[in-house]
Write a structure and sequence with these properties.
7 helices, Arc Repressor Mutant, subunit A, single chain, two-stranded antiparallel ribbon, mainly alpha
């Protein structure tokens, strides 16, 4: 199970956005340059993020994007879901009564992978953009030096 570039890049871009523009719009070109993501790809992602309520756009000179809500209220799962990234480890179609086997039954390990999918979603739902910015994530080095190093790397 791994997150595709769509989900990873959307999270990277919104953490960058929160880091650089809490009080002012940020141009996508700036995010693209800092995070080394194609501008056209970011434009596609931000259209979905805007539709999903994660960001809002500001038109005109000095325009760009801003978070639609405070960083401490924007969960990582909100971002991943907004860009239509499935958070699942099963081969089965979600909510379908049919399984992934040729005879339409569920595989013998279905419940294992379904449980993993739930754990991943719960974890991503427990982490906000603000948590990522502050380094307040389980298992991470949250020393002042490590936090400063992550901030410098984001610029």
């Amino acid at each position: 199970m791994r997150l595709s570039t769509k989900g990873r890049y959307a999270v990277m871009a919104l953490v960058d956005l929160a880091n650089m523009g809490a009080d002012r719009p940020v141009a996508l070109a700036d995010i693209a340059r800092r995070q080394e993501i194609s501008l056209s790809y970011l434009e596609q992602l931000f259209a979905k993020l805007r539709k999903g309520g994660a960001v809002r756009s500001v038109r005109g000179p000095g325009g760009g994007y801003m978070l639609a809500r405070p960083a401490d209220q924007l969960r990582i799962s909100d971002i991943v879901v907004a860009v239509d990234e499935p958070i699942r480890a099963t081969r089965c179609t979600p909510t379908s009564p049919e399984g992934c086997m040729n005879n339409k039954t569920r595989c013998i390990t279905h419940h294992l992978w379904e449980g993993l999918s739930l754990q991943i979603f719960e974890y991503l739902s427990s982490v906000t953009v603000a948590d990522v910015l502050s380094g307040n994530i389980a298992g991470m080095d949250n020393s002042p030096e490590a936090l400063e190093e992550r901030r410098a790397a984001a610029e």
